[in-house]
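FIELD: query
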Amino acid sequence: MLRSMTGYGKAEGAVGSRKYTVEVRSLNGKNLDLQVRMPSVLKQKEMDLRTELGARIVRGKSDIAIHFEADAAEARNELNAPVIRKHVKDLEALAQETGQPTGNLLSTAVRFPDAMQTSKEAFDEEAWAGIHALVLEAADNFDAFRNTEGASLEADFKGRLDEIERLESGLNPLLEARIKRVRDRIRTNLEETIDRASLDEGRFEQEVLYYIEKMDVSEERTRLTAHIAYFREIMETGNGQGKKLGFVAQEMGREINTLGSKANDADLQRIVVQMKDELEKIKEQVLNVL
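FIELD: result
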């Protein structure tokens, strides 16, 4: 079963007095490029999170974000007493120096920007257990999204491979008609240059065979059929098949291009162009496969 490289998963839940939201997303990329955004108090878990999620994401330009909404009652601002004392002392000295009344210097000192400070939050292992559960839920939703997208890609590939096979089978009558035209053209050319009665049928057949061998596409058709079968096999087995499918699609392209170069026939070229169009759409979508 195919999995898409593009994915999105989200989970929300209350942990303590906070509502946490975890989001995991990924876009196409040759390798794993994982960005982690999380509250500073959780940073000590970042490497563990990278290892755990990196193994699940595997490949792609990815991002995990953890954020929370705090209850108003949870405000952690507090007076910065040492700084306020220093401000009061400095204000007293300045007032005495300038002969100004001291008044209520404390009310003035607490208005300074650095008079308030945010207390440093300690890491809570119990809270992390709840947050980690949300991370796993988001990752599960992310995987489900990838699987759904992968199923759509697989259905699209199968339909386009069926169309390429249908077009390839349509070459048979055209190839037979081409051989007849070659025979007729060679006979006409020979009869125009030599007397019909002296036409050597053995030489004629040799000429026909020479041109038919140059225009023969049976090997290319056999290899194309084999590549299509292998593409289908890869889709059904294993994980991380995107790169393999890309390589096989390139090989299919080589065979179709050779068919076009040997076609030497307008009707055959039209079919080859249609096959190329289907294959290009496959190549575009293969880039989305994990």
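FIELD: remark
Residues 171 and 177 are 10 Å apart (CA to CA).
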